[in-house]
Amino acid sequence: MNSTQTTGLNWDAGLPILRNTQLRERNSLGFAATAELSCVIRSAEQIPLLMSTVLSTGMPWRVLGGGSNVVLPAHLPGITLLMEISGQALISNDQTTTQIRVGAGVNWHEFVIWSVEQGLPGLENLALIPGTTGAAPIQNIGAYGVEVSDLIQSITAFDCTAQQVVELTPAACQFAYRDSIFKRHPQRYIISAVTFSLPKTWVPQLQYADLTNFFSSQKNLPRPTAIFDAVCTIRQKKLPDPKVIGNVGSFFKNPTVSQTQLTQLFNTFPKMIAYPQSNGSHKLAAGWLIEQCGFKGAQRGAVGVFEKQALVLVNLGKGTATELLTLASEIQSAVQDRFGVLLEIEPVRM
Question: In whole angstroms, what is the distance from residue 99 CA to residue 93 CA?
């Protein structure tokens, strides 16, 4: 791939713009995809320079990190920012918290490993989630009773509307279940760094059933390293390795229903799995709903549903975004017809 000066565009000389970048290795589904133009972002200073041209022309653009939560089409028009800002550093360490600033391109799991090794607990429940640190707040990733928003101090981002760098508080990020302002307004902010605040007084989060069962025979509370190891073990048993079978983990969000809806569902489906929420609603297990509709292990051409976990859709080799989204639509229709519940797709469709 060579740098190119695209006709009609005044790219800054320090920004190597690449043409026809192949993205199969940059998305965990392993879909063949080509970016018309791309630029590797290795420092936050590159972003304003690049976006001044992009925004002035109105060309399509998007940011791609590890590609672990996206469904890529065969062709991405305009320019794709390939996020590779690295680095992590302790910026504050007092009696109550440790604050760590992490570049948006840092591999999430490697950062979790680093934090545990440094004796900085809090992130261990989020081990082995694929993707980059900059993508984590967009989806507000969560697992085993912990959401990343619980530990975020601030987000550093380029505001494409104001065309300036801003520092966003958690409240400004509007975090919700697998949601944030970044996901709802993908063309506004480009995250360059995330600052975490990890508490010195650590309390293990073991309320999730799998972890409760894993440590049920132990008399003493497990250490952070033990929880980290347990989470990795549990995830590896449930979810396929994207390097072996293309996937984005959970493809659908767990739907939320009211107490009234849940009562009605229990009358017909007494074995339904539901988890009470703090606001009085109940979260249903999307994987159970899909499995009851007969999709576990199903195949549709080169895509399918993982045989061990119905919540995971997979690329069996040469699948495409169109095939996968067609299967997803079929699953959504079947679940809604049987249970009256709409499943929402979790990964971003670019």
Answer: 6
Q: Find the largest Cα–Cα distance for the chain.
A: 69
Q: Are residues 38 and 115 in the same domain?
A: no
Contacts of 247 (CB under 8 A, 6+ apart): 28, 29, 239, 240, 306, 312, 313, 314, 315
pTM of structure: 0.90
Tens digit of each residue's pLDDT (9 = 90 or more) over 10-50 = 676 578 899 999 999 999 999 999 999 999 999 999 999 99
Collapsing DSSP states into helix, strand and coil, what is residue 181? helix
Tell me the backbone φ, ψ of residue 155, rounded to 5 degrees: -125, 130
Q: Is residue 10 part of a domain?
A: no
- At 292 the three-state DSSP class reads helix
Catalytic machinery residues: 178, 250, 346
How is 189-250 classified by DSSP, letter by letter?
EEEEEEEEEEESS------SHHHHHHTTT-SSPPPHHHHHHHHHHHHHHHS--TTTSEEEEE
Return the sign of the alpha-carbon dihedral for residues 123, 153, 27, 23.
negative
Q: What is the mean pLDDT of residues 150-157?
A: 98
Q: Number of structural domains, the chain?
A: 3
